[in-house]
Specification:
- Strands 3-2-1-4-7-5-8 form a 7-stranded mixed sheet.
- It has one domain: Spore Coat Polysaccharide Biosynthesis Protein SpsA, Chain A.
- The chain has helices spanning 16-27, 47-54, 72-81, 102-108, 130-147, 180-191, 215-230; strands at 3-9, 34-40, 61-65, 87-90, 114-118, 125-126, 159-162, 196-200, 202-203.
- 35% of the residues lie in helices and 17% in strands.
- Helix 2 links the parallel strand 2 (34-40) and strand 3 (61-65).
- The chain contains 7 helices and 9 strands.
- It is of the alpha/beta class.
- It binds guanosine-5'-triphosphate and magnesium ion.
- Residues 92, 94, 96, 206 line the site of magnesium ion (MG).
């Protein structure tokens, strides 16, 4: 298997099948094998059922249901662990992350081990909220100066990587919490000197459903996560 797309969902019934269809149409004309893995945390709106019914009998679309555990980062790790692809793409399931970048991400990871989408390289941006765009930009500067990270968008969460970069690593020590897991992921990858390229992305408006991000509490979580790395309170080994 060449590529696994991981789609974490929580109450995304409105748009999830449209997103899977769009990804599917992009991928079925590509010269590589793929699977699309949906990791749903037993969403009350019935996201899992919606996907399972729509794609029944199609082995390329694999909905996974987590009945006990909840949380974005552990859902992504669950998907990665159940995936068969040599490369993995992780993305939001509400159309914030445009699927048209998928072929580019897959091709460019032949040359770089990780391709991470960024709102802060030339050509990137955010159609959704100016407040979040600039707030995130300032936070990313803070991450840059505190942890000496070279990546410009450490909260993106739309990326492709060769799965082997996680070989031998205690991945559960990276993949916990919410969007802050991505700071830890990029931090570890940069410390391990894996080649990373940033690709410009323009975030689109969420299509349907409700946001799961509570800006204030997430900001404090992200801030704490960065300080924990800096002060050595968080360590990989
Ligand atoms: N499986 C799983 N997925 C989650 C969980 N929380 C969020 N997600 C998914 O993670 C992605 C990001 O969540 P969003 O609510 O879109 O967060 P956001 O992009 O910061 O906020 P918006 O601007 O509203 O799009 C979406 O695909 C969600 O469905 C969770 O606890 N479990
Ligand atoms: Mg979103």
């Amino acid at each position: 298997m060449n590529l696994s797309i991981i789609l974490p969902t929580y109450n995304e019934r409105d748009a999830i099948n449209a997103l899977i269809s769009e990804i599917y149409e992009i991928l079925e004309v590509q010269p590589f094998n793929f699977e699309i893995i949906i990791v749903d945390d037993n969403s009350p709106d019935g996201t899992y059922k919606e996907v399972a019914e729509q794609w029944k009998g199609n082995p390329r679309v694999r909905p996974l249901l987590r009945e006990k555990e909840k949380g974005l980062a552990t859902a992504i790790l669950h998907g990665i662990r159940h995936s068969e692809g040599e490369k993995v793409i992780v993305m939001d399931t509400d159309f914030n992350h445009p699927p048209k970048l998928i072929p580019l991400l897959v091709n460019i990871t032949d040359y770089f081990e990780i391709a991470s989408c960024s709102r802060y390289v030339i050509g990137g941006g955010m159609e959704t909220s100016r407040f979040r765009y600039f707030g995130s930009k300032v936070f990313n500067k803070f991450v840059h100066y505190t942890l000496k990270m070279q990546t410009t968008d450490n909260l993106s969460g739309y990326y492709c990587f060769k799965k082997e970069v996680l070989d031998g690593l205690p991945a559960e020590k990276i993949f916990f919490g919410y969007g802050d897991y991505f700071i830890r992921f990029l931090y570890v990858m940069q410390r391990m000197k894996h080649p990373i390229i940033e690709i410009p992305v323009v975030y689109k408006d969420r299509l349907g459903g409700l946001s799961k991000t509570d800006l204030k509490s997430e900001f404090f979580r992200y801030f704490r996560s960065v300080l924990n790395i800096k002060l050595g309170i968080w360590k990989l080994n």
